[in-house]
Amino acid sequence: MFGEYGYMEEGKLGKPYNFKLFKRLLPYSAPYKKTIISALFLTILITLFDLAIPYLSKIAIDQYILSSWYRVNTKALTDVETNHLLKRYGHLIDKSRDGSLSFVSNQALKKIDPGDIHTYKSRGVIEPERLYRTGPDVPDMNGIEKGGRTICEMADGSILVPYQLIEGLSDEKTMQIRAGDIRGVALIGAIFFFFLILSFGLNYAEFYLLEFTGQHIMQDIRLRLFLRMQSRAISFFVQNPIGRLVTRVTNDIENLNEMFKSVVVTLFKDFFLVTGILAVLLCLNWRLALLCFVLLPFIFGLTFLFSTMAREAFRELRATVARINAFLQERLTGMRVIQLFVREKFQMDTFGRINHKNYLAGMKQIRVFAVFMPVMELFSSIAVALLIWYGGGKVIEEQLTLGSLVAFISYIQMFFKPIRDISEKYNIMQSAMASTERIFEFMDHGDEIPEPEHSPAPSVIKGHLVFEKVSFSYEKGHPVLKDISFELKPGETVGIVGATGSGKTTLMSLIERFYDPDMGTVFLDGIDLRKWSKSRLHKNMGLCMQDVFIFAGNLAENISLGRQEIDAGAVELAAGEVNALPFIRRLPEGFNHEIGEGGSTLSAGERQLLSFARASNVDPATESLIQNAILRMADKRTTLIVAHRLSTVRNADRILVMHHGRLVEQGRHEELMSLGGIYYKLNKLTLTLHK
Fold first, then answer.
1. In sequence order, what are the residues at sequence separation of 6 or more whose Cβ sits closer than 8 angstroms to the Cβ of residue 150?
2. Phi/psi zone of residue 477: left (φ > 0), alpha (ψ -120 to 50 degrees), beta?
3. What separation in angstroms does the CA of 24 have from each of 16, 215, 311, 441, 527?
4. What angle do CA 63, 68, 70 make, to 5 degrees?
5. Are 637 and 577 in contact (CB under 8 A)?
6. pLDDT digits over 14-51, tens only?
7. Which of 171, 254, 408, 425 sits most deeply, having the most CB atoms within 10 A of its CB?
8. CA 301 to CA 283: how far, in whole Å?
């Protein structure tokens, strides 16, 4: 419906965004399926690298930086208990070279049931002293036994040394003993650096593929959208301002591109990342993972609430932006009228009201984001606090390694990253999805003149036009044409006159089939116009408008309108037919002269000559040229002339007089004047106005 400012409002769509929009994109993405699959594959690889980085930190801490072992004293158990221990956890225990001693690593402890660990430690089965395991190639380990503490050689040649003995050694000796750890940390660092470089390359390739695919898809959709625009009925353009249509082809298409890059792939990446994090957390420590999962219902509930509020706020914002675009387009186009009637202040006040509504909608959206972002940060901090409180205690109890706790914290922070990304990109997502919905809503719009399934193809077009009881209305209940019937014989020149609003322009629109009649039929050579294909109909029927639209470009292009079959000679001949050659030859570059938008570099008379039309304010010299052009062009053609200046149609074979949507008089000039009716009064009024 029309809003308070005279253009159609972007009403709320009334239905939530859903994945049906993505299904509509599939036909456009099908030609680039391989490229999209490649980009998704790269996304999976990048996600795997992201998941591997915190785990590398865990390995570095647990296996090299803080690696420790504990002696298992099976003598503190009965034979039955020893058998139970070996049966359940024997695969975690390493033996000394002589087989007399058993040891377990700190990493293996986390795999033992916490209840069993508590029992074993309280009974002295797992001794509290921390041991360090060196590599088998450490030289000269003799002489470091001290205070009754001894070293133990393992089956693989490595040696277990109490940490307190290492602390008393020189730095050089310590470096020799821990050379394997230093190499391990260096290796982890090298792998980390390699992953970063590889991730950079994969991110570049992914971004390039997505941009490549997105730009091609947008190009295809933009072409399809413009094709759909050209097929629309004239009524569609009457109801939709140009600013909105331009926004569809430009801003909305670009927003759709953003959706492809920032939404579609982000959803896949975030899904893989969240799934991978949950899986890794459960593998590291399922009890600690379940503790963190307590927050998930609150997080997802908050995200759903936010998405609902943000969607409504963004719809309001997009509606106000559309109104601003439409207002600016209309006012800038009609700036001459605004300045002529000194309406600048009124237009400024009107624009101020629209702009203020846009401001309020923007602030509503900002308030939603201002609440969501801090709350998500709060949940992230709570999750980390829970990890430090519960996980830190487990590290002290040696039921969890420090590396696992560090990795847990990294993964939890990484877990909130996709949610933060969604919130940060929600503006783009909502804009893109709103644009996508509007684009496909526009494509589905059925306001167009249908093409017949089978079109006639007569070899010769005679130009026999018949109106048979035709009625038409732009709005139901307000007829513009009422029961119109008349006939144009081949080669006949007929003029149509009448006061403003009598239905003359509408009559011509029906002949050109810009609209179909509500009742009755229009025949061309005995065939209903609705059975003619639009291309064949318009190829054999020319319309010269009073209101001339001149495209930016050179003069020749404006005459040919890009039709390949019209060469330079034909363009010059057409200009000669309408007496336009004299003024064209006066131009600096002739037919190649560049014309500004709307024909701003041409006079009104010159534009009217080019359009073979008639205007009320044309000068006498130009009027004479146009009348001569009409006579020459009407030769051997069926010609229907709609005129405001009655002198233009005085020599017509027949004149039709329209009044309030009805055909009230018809005949030659002399016959109509003798009747003393509507035509006679129009002539008298014209003579009075020209005195």
1. none
2. left
3. 16, 17, 20, 11, 39
4. 140
5. no
6. 344 455 666 666 777 778 888 888 888 888 898 888 88
7. 408
8. 26
Strands (E), 444-587: 465-475, 478-488, 493-498, 519-524, 527-528, 553-554
Cα separation, 407 vs 662, in Å, equals: 85
Which residues are 333's β-sheet partners? Answer: none
Q: Which residues, in sequence order, are bridge partners of residue 522?
A: 467
Phi, psi of 216 (to 5 degrees): -70, -40
Closest CA to 261 of 474, 475, 432: 432
Cα 564 from Cα 136, distance rounded (Å): 86
Tell me how many degrees the CA angle 72-73-76 measures, rounded to the nearest 5: 140
- Residue that the structure tokens 């609430």 belong to: 305
Report which secondary-structure segment, H or E, holds 152: strand 152-153
The 8-class DSSP code of residue 8 comes to B
Question: Tokens 């706020």 identify what position?
Answer: 313
- Is the Cβ–Cβ distance between 462 and 473 less than 8 Å? no
Got the DSSP string for 347-406? HHHHHHHHHHHHHHHHHHHHHHHHHHHHHHHHHHHHHHHHIIIIIHHHHHTTSS-HHHHH
CA pair distance 526, 472, nearest whole angstrom: 21
Q: Per this entry, what is the length of the chain?
A: 691
What does the pLDDT look like over 486-509, one tens digit per residue? 888 888 888 888 886 788 888 888
Q: Which amino acid type is present at position 318?
A: R
The one-letter amino acid code at 521 reads: T
Handedness of CA 300, 302, 303, 305 (dihedral sign): positive
Give the bridge partners for 8, in sequence order.
2
244 vs 661: CA distance, rounded Å: 32
- Burial bucket for residue 30 (CB in 10 Å: 0-12, 13-18, 19+): exposed
Tell me the C-alpha distance between 152 and 72, whole Å: 13
| Sheet (strand 654-659) strand order | 639-642, 493-498, 654-659, 662-667
499 closest CA partner among 328, 365, 363, 661: 661
| Backbone φ, ψ for residue 294 (5° rounding) | -60, -30
Query: What is the C-alpha separation between 530 and 512, in angstroms, rounded?
Result: 11
- So what's the pLDDT on residue 193? 92
Cα dihedral 51, 53, 56, 60 sign = negative
Residue 427 CA to residue 434 CA, distance in Å, equals 11
Pairing of strands 519-524, 465-475: antiparallel
Instruction: Give me the pLDDT at residue 11, please.
Output: 39
- Cα separation, 351 vs 291, in Å, equals 55
Helix (H, G, I), strand (E, B) or coil at 542: coil
What is the spatial distance between Cα 655 and Cα 664, in angstroms, rounded to a whole number?
Answer: 11
Nearest CA to 70 out of 123, 133, 128 is that of 128
Q: How distant, in Å, are the alpha carbons of 480, 551, 552 from that of 596?
A: 36, 8, 5
Asked if residue 415 lies in contact with residue 401, where contact means CB atoms within 8 angstroms, the answer is no
At 607, list the tokens. Answer: 């534009």
Beta strands in 211-319 (DSSP E): none
- 265-284 helix and 286-293 helix, angle to the nearest 10 degrees: 130
pTM listed for this prediction? 0.60
| Contact by Cβ (8 Å): 654, 492 | yes
3-state secondary structure of 238: helix
Residue 429 carries which DSSP code?
Answer: H
With beta carbons less than 8 A apart as the criterion, state whether 485 and 634 touch: no
Query: What stretches in the chain show pLDDT beneath 50?
Result: 1-17, 146-148, 612-620, 622
**658, 496 Cβ separation under 8 angstroms:** yes
pLDDT at 4: 32
Rg (CA), the chain: 42
